[in-house]
Amino acid sequence: MNTILSRFQIEYKPFRLDIELEFPNEGVTVIFGRSGSGKTTLLRCLAGLERSSTGYLRFGDQVWQDESQNKFVPVHNRPIGMVFQDARLFPHLTVRSNLNYGYRRIPPEHRKITFEQVVELMGLRPLLDRRPQRLSGGEQQRVAIGRALLTNPQLLLMDEPLASLDAQRKQEILPFLIRLRQEMKLPIVYVTHSLNEVLQLVDYLVLLEKGRNVASGPANAVMSRLDWPGKDWPSTFGAILTTTVADHETEFGLTRVQYRDQSLYIPEQPLAVGSPLRVHLLAQDISIALGKPETPTSVLNTLPATVLEIGPTDTPGSSVDLKLDVGEPILATITRKSLAHLQLKPGMRVYANVKAVKMVHEIEEY
Amino acid sequence: MDPSIFDWQPVWITLKLAATTVSVLLLIGTPVAWWLAHTGSRARVWVEAVVALPLVLPPTVLGFYLLIALGANGVIGGPFQSVTGSSLAFSFAGLVIASTLYSLPFVVQPLQGAFEASGKTYLEAAWSLRASKWDAFLSVASPMAVRGYLTAIVLGFAHTLGEFGVVLMVGGNIPGKTKVVSIAIYDHVEALEYSHAHWLSGGLLLLSFMVLLIVYAFNRRLPVHLS
Lengths: 366, 227
What we know:
The structure holds two protein chains of two kinds.
Chain A: E1 3-12, E2 15-24, E3 28-32, H1 39-47, E4 56-59, E5 62-66, E6 71-72, E7 80-83, H2 95-103, H3 115-122, H4 137-149, E8 155-159, H5 167-183, E9 188-192, H6 195-198, E10 204-209, E11 212-218, H7 219-223, E12 239-249, E13 254-259, E14 262-267, E15 276-281, E16 286-289, E17 301-310, E18 319-325, E19 329-335, H8 336-342, E20 349-354, E21 358-359
Chain B: H1 9-38, H2 44-56, H3 59-70, H4 77-84, H5 92-118, H6 121-128, H7 133-144, H8 146-162, H9 165-171, H10 181-190, H11 194-221
Helix pairs in contact in B: 1-5, 1-8, 2-5, 3-9, 5-8, 5-9, 6-7, 8-11, 10-11
């Protein structure tokens, strides 16, 4: 039962949250939705900051809330760490005292993550004796994450931790979040309205619309759904591939990454060889060929693929979505004319030519 | 005037009254201000209006009702007399009760403002860091409201120093018991003892000014700046 099971109904007129959701108690679960979709309320319910009068919440095998039994574990007794959109550092305390605030309040035998470790992981050494008011937004947020980690939580809840930062500051924090995901075996629930910022992080994806959970599942499975349920966003995101940096071709400004036994070229990244890197393939950037090109072509990236499924062709417009298997499911948008011309059928072996492999943070915000 | 014949008694009574009143007000005012700052209850506006009443009510009106309430047959004075055998009206204890009511808004309002300014957000952060409600109040909300506390203490103290009408009606004018500086000044002026009135008035003026000066200077150096 290593899952988190939650059922919440909350009504703040005209808003209504009505959710039943089970997600893995590991990795990064992203709750994605527009403002007003109820994602922050859901997170606050998980934290115990809001109390749904009919709510139920099970964390692994611990029940934190069961209103039918009149059971509700108050916030300060839940082993959670919470990172708010506004860092909420205590202004009367130094950075060091802020970090120690929760650490001092847990029993010594629970202090597995130590002060030194967190200072190192989040790069906080030069900030320790400063006051929060003297920190930049990005620095404040790093301290807030460190402060939450030091309570040695079993679950880290993050409410749009990057939303109040400009693009440059976001780029300063993302590497820390990526390290956090890699180095701490800590389940994270991350609320955001921008999939961009979490594509390097997301394992499990939950889509919220108007207070309801419209889709949830492993990120790639949700993103490559042909019957994309989100009305608030463009129909297809495409797919994320988890690759490894193989080498850099500096003279061409390219980095070669390895995906399974295939190579992909992406714009050069300042990353060490061997680093994991997620790349994003947009459906409209993928074209289909029946065989490997005989003649030279300008397309650098080709992946062998199997056609899994063909989307509906009775929709307006000239295009159709295909679901391909390249090791993970991805989507390709082609014209219906091409579909007819190539006589594509499920099960056919094809080649997916990728015109552009995007780095996730380059994608336009939806 | 020869300083050796200066009557210090009203000064000590006044300072004792102001210090006692402020202490009582902090004990009562903190939970009231906390409740006002955080409640969503409909009763809130009623309580706010009652707390603010002494600001607009003539001191003689408050003094009159208090005199009745604290008297031997009053709702407070009656039970007090049957238990202790002594009267609340025209006593120091009666003065403290009267001053507490009279200075209530001067303590509650700055505290309420300070608690509202820091809001619930920092408390939520403290709770998520394993602090219980009490712990969060003591370790986060209180130190963040330090300016509010300072303002409340100074205003409560200064306002009690300056009251006249209520203490005259409730305390009478009993030398050594309930005769405070403001009443002593009035007596001296009535008796045309202007030099005594000068000493007391000048002293009160200087004291009030120094207290405010120190507070404002200190306030600027406090680490907590909200808003």
